[in-house]
Amino acid sequence: MDFELSEAQTDLAAGVRRLCEGRFPLEAVRRAEGADQVVDRATWRALSDAGVFALCLPEDAGGAGLGLAEAAVVFEELGRSLLAGPLVATHLAAGLIDGADDGSTVVGLVERPDPPPTAPDGGSPVPVLVEHLADLDVLLVLSELGISAVDPSSLDATRLRRPMDPLTPVWSLASLPSGAPVAGPEVAKWWLRDGAVLTAALQLGAAAWSTDLAVAYAKQRVQFGRPIGAFQAVKHLCADMAVRTEVARAAVHAAAVTVDQPDVGDSMVAAAGAKLLADEAALANGRSCIQVHGGMGFTWDVPAHLAYKRARVLAGQFGTAESLAESLADSLAESLDGEHPG
Amino acid sequence: MDLRYTPAEQEFRHHLRSWLAGVLPSLPPKPRPDDWAGRRSYDTRWQRLLFEAGYAGVDWPVEGGGRGSSPVEQLIFKEELERAHAPYVGVNFVGLLHAGPTIIAEGTPEQRRRYLPPILRGDEVWCQGFSEPDAGSDLASLRTRARRDGDEYVVTGSKIWTSHAEVADHCELLVRTGDEGSRHRGITWLILPMDLPGVDIRPLTTIGGSTEFAELFLDEVRVPVANRVGEENDGWRVTMVTLSFERGTAFVGDLLEAVELLATTVSIAQRTGAWGDPGVRRQVGHLRAELDALWALTKRNVSQAARTGVPGIGGTVFKLAYTETRQRLGELSLSLLGRAGLAADDLELLDGSGPLPCETVVDDWFRGISLTIAAGTSQIQRNIVGERILGLPKEPVAPAAGNR
Questions:
Q1: Of the candidates B4, B278, B299, which has its C-beta nearest A261's C-beta?
Q2: Which end of chain B is more exposed for a tag (fewer CB within 10 A), N or C?
Q3: How far is CA B18 from the centre of its chain?
Q4: B76–chain A nearest CA distance, Å
């Protein structure tokens, strides 16, 4: 048992970080704020050249044949870059949708509400919202029953004037067509699990980014004659950010390794726990980063809000805090029933 | 990243598991918490059994008489003992985890010969005299005075939070040998025989009603200079060296105990009907995610220690997160008892389905409160994370503190 990153995993992370810092610095990412389209096709190709989308495809299918552990390490770096777009969906779709693996096809994903809004027995009155529609070549609809593909241009969709996250444009649909089936419940089940792990990895990167930004500011901002990071009130906010990130990172890495090494545990449980804690770390750290920045943190110019908003977007994908926590409790109760019959 | 155990690690686990299965049924019933003589003989007898089976000091180096196990084997050892409900290290804690490692690293050959084997065999019990009424988080300000008189130190002062003092043979004692205000540069590490004249023990009663700790009063106690470990005024470094023995496994038993308490909590919720409440289930699910993550973090810290040979800062992160998770678990289980939580003994239900485990829950709730205080308060831990991991500027020190 050796739960430290291997040298290859450390190198992979460093390579992706260099790529992101060199090719997609935050200034470049921010240029798309408020736009209909936030995916830059050249960026997408560069990510594909770096192996981001085909990472887990077998080598004989043109992929790198790596595990979800490596993908989690890569997606943490992507999360740290605050890069916008359907990264997880396109990664999952590699091997299923032509061109996803090489970055030529941008694949989006929406989870089909259960029950659907149009159900006669009173489904939710909230319309289906789809992220990044104008960037998509293919929209996949995911539920536990399977995956189907929809042509994005065929949808009757209304662009929402003011998305909560300026880098996540959103459309509202009156109805979600059933689409053409592309995979059954087996594939859907692992997509839900791996999608949760990779989204958690993005959240982890955002949580770490918020910590770094807050710490850098706390070292440089002087009040009462000293850097504010010397004061325990601020220092302890930063310490809590670091602790949340480290705990969430252990959970995300353990979930990814459990997917790759099924003998070591229940990967569904590990994925749910990782997503729950990574969501929380990204949200709480995003919030704390703004707080450490004081009034400046409330301005659009300081990028603290971007990680907080992104954390909110990702927290609604592949399981919410409520659904994840309940599923963890239910599976725990089931396993205890198994131990003590009657 | 590999979570699979090697064949050698699996074999270590397998042997340990079968030994435990054989030996545990032969143990006498556990003594009551306030029966100190009973606790000493129970705990030391268990240590003797470990010694005879070759499991004494799994985390001690071979040259110190230990087993010299790898960090991963130490993890497996603690995991298997907890899962089998083997006795806790108990009164052997300070000897095995603190005084012994200190003497291995810093003691003379004579001190090693004299003190190490009795710890491993369970013959001698140690306690710790570090903290003082006026030196808690700021340990370097300690004031218990040791004056040199020929080949003896004459020690006067008082210590606090001295666990197991009533049954200890020796105390690892930090004393001030330097000038007043010399702080960490004027401290010396002594072995104090507890039967010397002038040693007085006064038990402290915790909020849970137990007498886990004591105050130690030292009045002109004459300790041989030969009992000094390390050089005079070098005791701070000696103490810090001991910390480098930690391999990330300090909370393994505790964490697995919390996993069991969560299962107990589910059972309480099911029996009282609270399980139907989604809010309760979500709290349980959240705690499960936290405990799973902390188990993963333990494996990460152990793996780091295995690679580098030294403990990382991960132990501080773990302690901060774990202790607060444990407190929330304690609060949830107690609140689920409802009015039954007014009882600190198990309470029979009217439907004849057996008692509610009030004793476990209430005692755990009490003990949980100590976790964010003992071995470095959470506030001190946050300073450590902020300053040593994140590189934030140090806390300004008030010059008016008196002894600087």
A1: B4
A2: C
A3: 27
A4: 11
Residue ranges of B 342-381 with Cβ closer than 8 A to chain A: 379, 381
Chain B residues near residue A250 by CB distance under 8 angstroms: 293-294, 296-297, 299-300
Which residues of chain A neighbour B393 with C-beta distances below 8 Å?
A: 219, 226-227, 229-230
* Whole-angstrom distance, CA of residue A29 vs CA of residue A22: 12
Q: Which of B79, B124, B132, B246 is catalytic?
A: B246
Cα of B207 vs its chain's centroid, Å: 19
Q: Give how far B232 is from chain A: nearest CA, Å.
A: 34
Chain-chain contact of A254 with B299 (C-beta, under 8 angstroms) = yes
Please give the CATH number for the structural domain made up of B252-389. 1.20.140.10
- Domain A7-183 sits in CATH at 1.10.540.10
Q: How far is B6 from chain A (nearest CA, A)?
A: 6
Per-residue pLDDT of chain A (342 residues; tens, 9 = 90+): 999 999 999 999 999 999 999 999 999 999 999 999 999 999 999 999 999 999 999 999 989 999 999 999 999 999 999 999 999 999 999 999 999 999 999 999 999 877 665 666 666 788 899 999 999 999 999 999 999 999 999 999 999 999 999 999 999 998 899 999 999 999 999 999 999 999 999 999 999 999 999 999 999 999 999 999 999 999 999 999 999 999 999 999 999 999 999 999 999 999 999 999 999 999 999 999 999 999 999 999 999 999 999 999 999 999 999 999 999 999 999 999 877 543
The CATH number given to B126-232 is 2.40.110.10
Complex ipTM: 0.95
Listed in sequence order, the DSSP H helices in chain A are 7-23, 26-30, 41-49, 68-81, 87-93, 185-220, 232-260, 267-292, 304-315, 321-339
Q: Domain coordinates of chain B in residue numbers?
A: 7-88, 126-232, 252-389
Q: Quick check: A251 and B304 CB within 8 A?
A: no
Q: Is B128 helix (H, G, I), strand (E, B) or coil?
A: strand
The sign of the torsion formed by the CA atoms of A107, A108, A112, A116 equals negative
Residue B142 contacts A, CB cutoff 8 Å: no
Hey, where are the domains in chain A?
7-183, 188-339
Reply yes or no on domain A188-339 having CATH 1.20.140.10: yes
pTM value is: 0.96
3-state SS, residue B288: helix
A227: closest chain B residue by CA: B393
CB proximity list for B94: less than 8 A, separation 6 or greater? B125, B126, B127, B128, B163, B164, B168, B172
Which tens digits make up the pLDDT trace of B84-95?
Answer: 999 999 999 999
Question: Does residue B246 carry a catalytic annotation?
Answer: yes
